[in-house]
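User: Fold this, then the next.

Assistant: Folding the first:
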Amino acid sequence: WDLEGVPYNGVPLRLVGTKLYGCHQGKDKSVRQKEKYHAGKEKHMLEDLAFLKGNRKVQTTKKTNCPVEFTVKHIVRFPGFKIADKTKKRQASAALKEALSVDPLKVEAVVEYHASFPCMSEHQYHPTVGEMSSDDVVIRAARPEDCKEILRMIKELAVYEEMAEKATLTEDALREDAFGDQPYYRALVAEVPSDGRDETRLIGYAMYYFCYCPWLGRAIYLEDFYVEPAYRGRGIGTSIMKEVAKIGVKHRCSKMQWVCLNWNDVAISFYKKHGGKDVTVEEKWHLFRMDQEELVAFAGG
């Protein structure tokens, strides 16, 4: 059920294998063969007067012994035994075990590969290709022309949260609700240079709005928050969230609130690291909701 580096989603899994890959500038496994080759080559070249005058040193390896490793885990998930309640793990495990013993070919299985990449800052002794400086990332207020890309990222987040079918919002509605006569939300975007460097692209966003707490007064609600996977681990998410927090402070808000799926351990750790409190645990709150059908029925009842 739980495996480091693999998000928990309620589906039981089985680890098939793990593969470690070193950085391209890591330990050179062929260094001895190279040293032997270069020693013979250097002995031969010592007879060359031009080589002696140049006093050239033959380099045996260009690698720098960077200690970073990349992990790829090969797993199999069994979606037919998904649970919504973590307390049901034992019963689901027993049912899965029995099904596999009876006829494993009839058990639905999905093969997945999960890669864990180190932060760019963990690389040592060499520059990192594609590494961005803080000047490369721009956090700014969203503009009407950003809505197409924001919607793309909203759908990417919905897929990750396994609720893709619920993301039915249109680009026009997104634009109208933020930039119309009566805005219903505000947004920030993270912008980086594209491959050509002359243009930019959006790789993250935060959607927020102001609300009110009857006990404390003004509050800010972080409705949505996302950074593309390829750009995580570089502090971009922290920068976006800090900008939302700064807006809250500027408007004298008493607190900032948001929700997080209970299986998203990576996000939970991120929020706790930055001072977020899990009020579900500490204050025993339950989040209630009426979808549109229930809302219309209740309003008209």
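Now the next one, as you asked:
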Amino acid sequence: MTVQFTRSGRSWSSALCGSVNTLAHCQDLLLLGCDEGSIYVYNVEGNMLLPTLNIGAPITKTAVSHEYIAVISNVPSLYVWNVKEKKNILKDERLSSFNTDSRTITSLVINKDGNITIGLSDKTTYCYSYSLAAWMVIARNKVDVGWYRELETNSKSTSSSKVLSDLLRSQLEERSTPTDQQVSHLNTVSLMEQAMLVADNLGSLPETRLWLNSLVRYLTLQQDEERLRSLLQRLMSSASNEIYGAEKLELVTELLTIVAGNVHCQRVYSDIKQQLEWAKSRP
């Protein structure tokens, strides 16, 4: 099979071993996945950057970002390569539990650092941790609609490395209104806590603080004093002077300004403020 591409007024052609099932591109790379397992990687000039690869199964999804490429086969299994270094960084990661009668894989995203996220038809989203060698749950359906306004506002005012930005955007687009408010509250808290852990694991400290800030906003909005107190107390009790890349007392002070705006959370505000003032007065 022969394919022809046109970019910026320039055309080029290439011969392929099979038929193209899927393609992905970014500013620097073009990735093709074929029905007999072949994978082709080109730069913007039409030059092949890797030898023709074949993983022995039809390619169903592709993703590319900067120097990283990722493909999913119909097994299904996942492969990730660093094109610049010409090496594989994830091989034959089986995804069978993600592709069942009740749910299927709907999206594959890779960011500039090679971090992989997979979205499923049941609105669950996973991010792969290379250090833990396992999938981390980020998002699930049936969360509280009330938190979106706070999170959207917070995300616009916070500088983020955008590890989870696509997930954040998909959550804002796919929001639901569950009937059981207690379940939705627990799911929402769990989602934010999980997102914090994922961002921290991926080394995205600005985004970790974004989710922390959003969690405090949500707990304050919901007047969940028990969880709010526990969270702030845990930060104050940390043995480290730096938390998520910020000075501990400065971080807690910033979070307290959020709590101060809700009259129903003044007991938590007063208790933590007293601890904060005592900590700042120590030599």
